[in-house]
Inverse folding.
């Protein structure tokens, strides 16, 4: 009952606070609109990706050759991929060395390999993404066929034309969207947690009355956390709606709303645990704690490709382990991409597992810190 | 109107046995100690905020905690409500042990903090109703309590405004309404009149008297000795975390004052008058500061012999005032400090 009272009045206060309304509801829309427009301009019809000469070595059977070559013959692919057939990998390597080709595509039995020289270019990144998506879908088709399930589509129908077609409106808006949605949920949540705990100074402000009332601290904190996430949830619904209807980032047909909500709850837990870590840091002022959370949002957003789509590839090339550390990256690859665009739901559970692991680690760290802080009487 | 919780309880010096109900389930009493603090100590690092602090307050009292800023008054309230846990000593409120019975105790206590503690984004009405609901009232019931509290502090006309739209005096009244909406039996008022205009102060002081008349026990802290003198039945003087004196105002004054000063305004002095006044047995000292004769007397000395001397000397006087000791004088005598420090 008191929990509900806290939630009701806290949400009411948040919705009446103009600065909260701006930062939580208006600013994300402005940001998405601004970035979306910018990305649209970059990837507009006027923008043409340089054609990549691909040395193609085919050493397989028709079962594997025909689907791949059919896929590569698609007009959207042909727009930026020029296949140059070679008999062997050695011959293809010579072709690359001679400057006749940029990269080697080797179909070896059931394996599709891309061979290239460092450093890579954006054209190669696009080609790699396309081939990876093709093999993912093909494997799924094979798995379905082996299970005796009728295959309703050809492999290429699974290829999302928006992701491949760089002349589309915003090919990476989904990437931006998934990173943003993860960050907003988790780290904005963390920001609220540190803010909430900072307000809990004895004998100060309205918290004094809460302390003096017959209310359990855990009940108060739980209610306030829920109320903050109610607002974040409202924000995400708005962002989701905007992203879908304005930028057509994804089709509602593919969205698993139940699992999406579960992912959101998991992200909320992640943010709460992260917030508790920062709040438990000893001998640091409230302003510094807020700055740490804000800084974390900005840094993780940049490294995960939130502000500059594609930057995550740079991060991963420097630190491949970042895939398991930066939440927005594994969320995008493992959860939100699948939930919003369709695909193997196994990845969802893998992503959720990573998230759970992070939450567990954060919880242990914050408990240890909190214990230490309490023992020294610094709370 | 605010419901009456407690029938007028007995005053210490009047009836020794009385019967009243604090709550229907509670017992009748003989001088019920609402608050019993024994040898409480609270430290903040190296600073001792409360030092062997003992305090007993009875039901229905309007009890003053008087002391300069930083004396430990607010810390004492915090410890009583377990906002800061005490390092040692025992705390019993309503004959229950703090912190063991914390929730049950808090249910019956209200606090009016020193600083206005309300939510800027909620209206006056919502602020009060929120706190009513926190004390377990269902929304419909909380609404009724809120209306009663608004009426009590005369804020009904401002109920739709938000706190930033209110003047300092109205904010203080809202602060009180939030603390009393659940009709507490014990109310802590921590300097509720700081930084407000005289008119609002008078309204608030009258509110406090009325709450006490309705049966609430009130602990009133202040460094304004005039307010404490005006309001409180008993007073404890706090300094450096200790109670240095406690009792009714007269008891406190008796502790430190043995002399009174009579100031007589005279038209003119006649020869030998000062000597004749000084010769009276209860008079300790006589001084003339035109147009006043100041006579130091033993406490409670009748003034008639003095007036007889003036009459015999044919000295016309237009006024006589007797300076009685104030709490400030008491505090000064006990601590060597003034209350405004």
């Amino acid at each position: 009952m008191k929990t509900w009272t806290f939630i009701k009045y806290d949400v009411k206060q948040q919705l009446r606070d103009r600065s909260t309304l701006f930062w939580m509801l208006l600013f994300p829309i402005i940001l998405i609109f601004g970035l979306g427009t910018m990305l649209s301009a970059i990837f507009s019809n006027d923008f043409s990706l340089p054609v990549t000469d691909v040395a193609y070595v085919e050493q397989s059977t028709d079962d594997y050759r025909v689907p791949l070559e059919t896929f590569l013959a698609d007009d959207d692919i042909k727009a930026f991929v020029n296949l140059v057939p070679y008999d062997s990998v050695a011959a293809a390597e010579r072709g690359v060395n001679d400057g006749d080709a940029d990269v080697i595509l080797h179909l070896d039995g059931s394996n599709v390999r891309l061979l290239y020289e460092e450093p890579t270019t954006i054209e190669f990144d696009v080609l790699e993404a396309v081939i990876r998506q093709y093999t993912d879908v093909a494997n799924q088709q094979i798995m379905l066929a082996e299970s005796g399930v009728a295959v309703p589509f050809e492999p290429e129908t699974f290829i999302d034309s928006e992701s491949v077609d760089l002349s589309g409106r915003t090919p990476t808006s989904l990437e931006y969207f998934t990173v943003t949605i993860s960050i907003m949920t988790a780290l904005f949540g963390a920001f609220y947690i540190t803010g909430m705990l900072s307000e809990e100074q004895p004998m100060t402000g309205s918290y004094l009355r809460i302390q003096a009332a017959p209310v359990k601290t855990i009940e108060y904190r739980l209610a306030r956390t829920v109320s903050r996430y109610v607002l974040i949830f409202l924000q995400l619904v708005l962002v989701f709606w905007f992203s879908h209807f304005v930028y057509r980032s994804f089709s509602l047909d593919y969205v698993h709303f139940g699992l999406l909500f579960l992912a959101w709850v998991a992200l909320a837990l992640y943010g709460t645990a992260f917030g508790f870590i920062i709040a438990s840091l000893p001998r640091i002022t409230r302003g510094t704690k807020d700055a740490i959370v804000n800084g974390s949002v900005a840094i993780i957003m940049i490294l995960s490709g939130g502000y500059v789509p594609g930057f995550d590839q740079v991060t991963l090339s420097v630190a491949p382990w970042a895939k398991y550390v930066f939440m927005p990256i594994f969320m995008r690859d493992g959860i939100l991409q699948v939930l919003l665009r369709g695909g193997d739901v196994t990845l969802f559970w893998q992503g959720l597992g990573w998230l759970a692991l992070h939450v567990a680690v954060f919880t242990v760290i914050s408990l240890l810190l909190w214990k230490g802080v309490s023992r020294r009487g610094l709370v | 109107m605010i419901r009456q919780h407690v029938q007028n309880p007995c005053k210490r010096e009047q009836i020794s046995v009385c019967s009243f109900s604090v709550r229907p389930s509670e017992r009748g009493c003989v001088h019920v100690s609402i608050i019993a603090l024994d040898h409480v100590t609270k430290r903040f690092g190296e600073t001792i905020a409360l030092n062997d602090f003992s305090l007993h307050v009875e039901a229905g009292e309007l009890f003053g905690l008087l002391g300069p800023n930083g004396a430990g008054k607010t810390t004492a309230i915090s410890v009583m409500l377990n906002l800061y846990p005490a390092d040692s000593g025992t705390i019993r409120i309503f004959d229950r042990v703090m912190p063991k019975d914390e929730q049950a105790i808090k249910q019956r206590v209200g606090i009016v903090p020193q600083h206005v503690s309300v939510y800027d984004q909620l209206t006056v009405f919502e602020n009060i109703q929120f706190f009513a609901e926190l004390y377990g009232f269902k929304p419909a019931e909380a609404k009724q309590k809120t209306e009663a509290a608004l009426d009590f502090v005369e804020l009904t006309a401002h109920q739709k405004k938000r706190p930033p739209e209110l003047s300092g005096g109205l904010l203080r009244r809202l602060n009180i309404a939030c603390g009393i909406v659940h009709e507490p039996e014990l109310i802590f008022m921590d300097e509720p009149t700081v930084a407000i205009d005289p008119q609002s102060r008078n309204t608030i002081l009258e509110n406090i008297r009325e709450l006490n008349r309705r049966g609430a026990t009130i602990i009133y802290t202040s460094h304004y000795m005039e307010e404490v003198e005006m309001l409180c039945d008993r007073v404890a003087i706090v300094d450096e975390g200790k109670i240095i004196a406690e009792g009714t105002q007269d008891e406190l004054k008796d502790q430190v004052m043995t002399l009174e000063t009579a100031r007589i305004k005279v038209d003119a002095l006649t020869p030998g008058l000062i000597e004749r006044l000084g010769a009276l047995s209860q008079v300790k000292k006589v001084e003339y500061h035109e147009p006043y004769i100041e006579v130091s007397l033993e406490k409670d000395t009748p003034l008639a012999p003095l007036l007889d001397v003036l009459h015999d000397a044919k000295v016309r006087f237009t006024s006589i005032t007797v300076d009685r000791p104030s709490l400030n004088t008491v505090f000064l005598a006990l601590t060597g400090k003034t209350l405004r420090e």
